Amino acid sequence: MTGSPGAPLTSGAPDLAPALVVADVSHSFGEVQALKGVSFTVARGAFTALLGVNGAGKTTLFSLITRLYDSTSGTIAVAGFDARRAPGEALARLGVVFQTRALDTDLTLRQNLRYHAALHGIARRPAEARIAEVLALVDLADRIDQRTAALSGGQQRRAEIARALLHRPELLLLDEATAGLDVRARAEVLALVRRLIRHENVSALFATHVMDEIEPADNVVLLHRGEVLARGRADSIAAAGGDLTSAFLSLTGQAA
Ligand SMILES: Nc1ncnc2c1ncn2[C@@H]1O[C@H](COP(=O)(O)OP(=O)(O)OP(=O)(O)O)[C@@H](O)[C@H]1O
Question: Looking at CB atoms within 10 Å, which of 48, 52, 126, 146 has the fewest?
């Protein structure tokens, strides 16, 4: 295990709590144990990569954080709010970009975002202002009245990030947000997420299996077959194997 142990679960003061604390979380689907005692922390203002190949348990973990599944073992806290005991508070602080598309392609960007703002209980007038704001953040202000179907794959991903930002979340969860995009669109999505962290007071947990999306100073949680094999700065994990890919292969027992 690389890196420091997770921060204490409760700080008493949500303002000072990490963006996300996952402590000893396990989850099974019948005989399949998808997560085994998973613990890690996402600090405020941090880009944390959840690195894992297919079947690592990334989507299961996201489903527990977003309360799609109920976690029966371990604790999850978003910005200091326990996801089970205070789900409303925890979910209000989460913005989610799922693997599956969340926008209605028959509607315009504006219509999609109005709908999601209403779901979050944002009144019409502030919603219009916030929609303009988030579209500017993701560089899609000029596409507001375009049908979502007419946007490129990369623009759709950025639109989904805009949707996830509507209610000013403290933590963005992104599940393979760059999957299916070409090299340039991938780079744009990554740069956008990093920019949001620097300027918009948000943290991110970015699930990926693509090593070259990770920068040396990023925090990494290496999840493999439901277990955290390493956590800490990417460069310190990489140091164990020469580079991140070699360290990954060695830690997962796949080194030649
Ligand atoms: N609904 C389910 N029923 C049964 N088994 C499941 C279910 N969802 C996930 N699993 C199993 O749990 C394990 C973790 O799957 P999960 O989808 O969380 O991994 P992942 O890291 O997100 O992979 P991928 O990148 O392929 O989505 C796998 O062995 C998977 O087969």
Answer: 126
